[in-house]
Recover the amino acids of this structure.
């Protein structure tokens, strides 16, 4: 009898402990890291990916209980993943559309970069391209209308008739969106062989002597030397349409030079643009604190990573969007 009573009281105590545990506050399973800490998931634009990796590394150094998972897949994927709740934060390297905000997309701008046009360094008219550049009208005829199809026409060289091999992005992305916007069109209007992702597009041009494409600057310049990657040259924009690249248009030799030109407005917007982080509904929980850190202490890593910091007033505007729950 005494044994039965003891067992009975033990069961009551265990039940009470279990009830106490289930009623205590807890993170949702999707936000719990295997170690028991907090997890933040991020996906999306290739343009923002290197910067986000840097931010994640630095943030985790000072927040040991946080694990941040970052994956690239294009701005379209970042937006979709954020709106469906697949990730906490989506990286989107283009303007946020009204239909996306109608679905609950809330965003903050966190930094800025740009898209540049690339050609193969062994292109037979590469010297002419770098001296003359290409104006917006000719770019339209190459990427959209397909009425200019050989390099000799581009450079006014009658001794060259090599066919231009145009490459564009196959995935919904900010790079294609902003390049098309510069030309006065939308991504779906761009023609050429579709290639997935920034790295893929850069590789396609590097391996095709007659190729032309476009990339976010983070995938064109070497992170160590600051110079264009081996195999690629940047085709200057002939902004004043005078058939030559003037001294103040010579802004592509190094990553530092192009970022300075973006910062001062010498390089136009588009194809420069802000890069955004998106969530569904208000920013909240661990991801909100991470974004707040990005917009404050995290800005110290922007320039060294080859991006452009937002002006102080713009930063203040973005911080005001991080409302409390």
């Amino acid at each position: 009898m005494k044994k039965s009573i003891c067992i009975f009281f033990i069961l009551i105590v265990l039940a009470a402990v279990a009830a106490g545990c289930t009623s205590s506050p807890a993170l949702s399973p999707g936000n719990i890291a295997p170690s028991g800490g907090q997890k933040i998931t991020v996906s999306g634009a290739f343009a923002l990916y290197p910067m986000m990796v840097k931010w994640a590394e630095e943030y985790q150094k000072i927040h040991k209980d946080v694990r941040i998972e970052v994956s690239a897949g294009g701005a379209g994927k970042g937006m979709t993943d954020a709106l469906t709740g697949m990730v906490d934060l989506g990286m989107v390297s283009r303007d946020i559309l009204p239909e996306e905000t109608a679905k609950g997309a809330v965003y903050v701008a966190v930094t800025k970069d740009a898209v540049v046009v690339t050609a193969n360094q062994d292109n037979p008219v590469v010297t002419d391209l770098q001296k003359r550049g290409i104006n917006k009208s000719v770019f339209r005829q190459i990427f959209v209308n397909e009425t200019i199809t050989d390099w000799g026409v581009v450079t006014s060289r009658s001794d060259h008739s090599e066919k231009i091999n145009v490459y564009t992005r196959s995935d919904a992305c900010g790079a294609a969106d902003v390049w098309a916007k510069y030309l006065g069109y939308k991504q779906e209007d761009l023609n050429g062989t579709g290639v997935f992702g920034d790295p893929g597009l850069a590789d396609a041009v590097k391996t095709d002597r007659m190729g032309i494409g476009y990339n976010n600057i983070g995938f064109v310049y070497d992170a160590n030397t600051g110079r264009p990657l081996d195999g690629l040259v940047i085709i200057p924009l002939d902004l004043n349409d005078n058939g030559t690249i003037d001294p103040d248009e010579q802004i592509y030799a190094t990553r530092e030079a192009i970022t300075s030109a973006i910062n001062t407005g010498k390089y136009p917007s588009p194809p420069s643009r802000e890069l955004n982080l998106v969530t569904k509904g208000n920013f909240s929980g661990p991801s909100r604190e991470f974004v707040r850190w990005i917009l404050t202490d995290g800005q110290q890593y922007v320039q060294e990573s080859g991006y452009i910091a937002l002006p102080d007033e713009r930063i203040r505007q973005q911080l005001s969007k991080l409302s409390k729950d």
About this structure: The CA atoms of residues 148 and 276 lie 35 Å apart.
